[in-house]
Each structure stands twice: as structure tokens, then as C-alpha cells.
Amino acid sequence: MKKKLLYFMICSLGLAYFTSCKKSSYLTDGGLSEAKSPLTTYEYLKQHKYHLFDTLIMVIDHYNMKDEVNGAATFFAPTNYSINNYIRLKRDSVRLINENNTYTLTNMYNDLKADSLRIYLSKSRIALTTAPLQPTLVANAANTQTAFQRILQPKPGESWSSSPIYYLYYIKVRGGLDPPNSTAQPNDPNIDLKAQCQTTGIEPSSGGMLHVLSNTHTFIRF
Questions:
Q1: Which domain holds residue 76?
Q2: Residue 80's CATH number
Q3: pLDDT of the chain, 222 residues: tens digit per residue
Q4: Does 79 reside within a domain?
């Protein structure tokens, strides 16, 4: 009986140690445990095991932007969901005019310029750990200004981490950069659009940084 009890205690301690190590090996923002990838940015997106970027790859190929994506200092990558969110919104607006009409990816290609993708390609290398706490302007490949910011997140009641938790945000600047603590109505066309990164700090072999935007983000028309 004593031997069984001792064996149970050893197994329990081992499981607890393994679990704690597994948690600590991941970034607090939900990023990857292994930041460096042997793949280029384009290859990483195309070979994603959950096919999270299949539609994005189609858009990149349509505009012949593979080399631009691989050469970007930082790419804030929208997922399939972001692109589909845009198409869904356009489809809804089209059907308000004619319920028999629809809106497809082909329609989106006709409406959008390649610069709608280039605004996600920043000319500066941006990392979560060095990002400022205030919105900071950065030039993008469309030769306009976007911004980024590191924001401290409130901890849940039962948090496994004692360290502060930050998330990186991509910001589409509209009009001018909003002043700190500014207030505006949610549908105000002049308010900046903030998109949280669900994964940060991927370092492809092609250089630069790759951050993945939240699935709730909607692809932005340039």
C-alpha cells in the first residue's frame, strides 16, 4: 500500500512539473514557443497546418506580392476570417440594393488595390517586447502611415502568470493619430481602427517579423 502511495505521489509531482514547464515555454500573449521558423514568410503562411491563411495566399498571389511579403520588415498578417469578414460586409450591403446580387473574392479584386495589402507591410521591424505603450506611427509599403502599440491586459481572476501580460496592436490611422484617452462614437469614420495580434514574434527565414491579427479583424480597404 505504501509503495502504491509513493508511486502515485511521484507521478503526480512529475505531471505537475511537466505542465508548469509546458506553460512557461509559451509566450504570455499566446504566441509560439519556437519563434524562429525555417520557412520564409510566404511559405509559413502557405503551409500553415490549420490552413488559416489560404485566402490570404490567394490574395498575395493575385497581386503578385510574394517577394514583397518575404521582404517586409514586419507583416501584420490578416487571416482568412479577416478577408471573409470584409466580403460578408460587402455582400450584405450589395443585397440591400438587390437581394439577388452577391459579392465574391473576384469582386473584391476588382474593388481593391494591392495597397490594401501593402498597408499591413511595415517598413520597420516591430517586436512585442520593444513596442511602445503609446501609439506610434510607422511607414508601410503603401507609403502611408499606420501605427502600432503594446497594451497591458487585465489579468483574469485565476492567472497562472505573475508577470504583466501585453498584447501588440496594429492601428489603421484615419485622418490623424488619435490623442491618448480620446473618446469617440464607435462608428465615427475618423476614429483609428485597432486590431489585436493573436500571435506575435514569428521570425521567418526570409527575415523580418510576422504577427497574426485577430480573426475578428476586418480586412481594410485602401
A1: 35-153+164-175+190-213
A2: 2.30.180.10
A3: 444 443 444 344 343 433 444 333 333 344 445 799 999 999 999 999 999 999 999 999 999 999 999 999 999 999 999 999 999 999 998 887 877 788 999 999 999 999 999 999 999 999 999 999 999 999 999 999 899 999 998 876 666 667 888 999 999 998 889 887 776 665 777 889 999 999 999 999 999 999 999 999 999 988
A4: yes
Any domain includes 116: yes
Q: 95-107 burial, b if ≥16 CB within 10 A, otherwise e? A: eeeeeeeebeeee
* Phi, psi values for residue 132, rounded to 5°: -70, 160
Residue 159 is which amino acid?
A: S
Residue 128 located in a structural domain: yes
Structural domain contains residue 197: yes
Cell 511537466 belongs to which residue?
Answer: 18
**Share in percent of the chain as helix, strand, coil (round to 5):** 35, 20, 45
Is the distance from CB of 133 to CB of 86 less than 8 angstroms?
Answer: no
d(CA 112, CA 128): 30
Say whether pTM exceeds 0.85: no
| Contact assessment for residue 109 and residue 219, using Cβ atoms and an 8 Å cutoff | no
Which candidate, 209, 183, 206, places its Cα nearest to that of 197? 209
In angstroms, the CA 71 to CA 202 distance is: 14
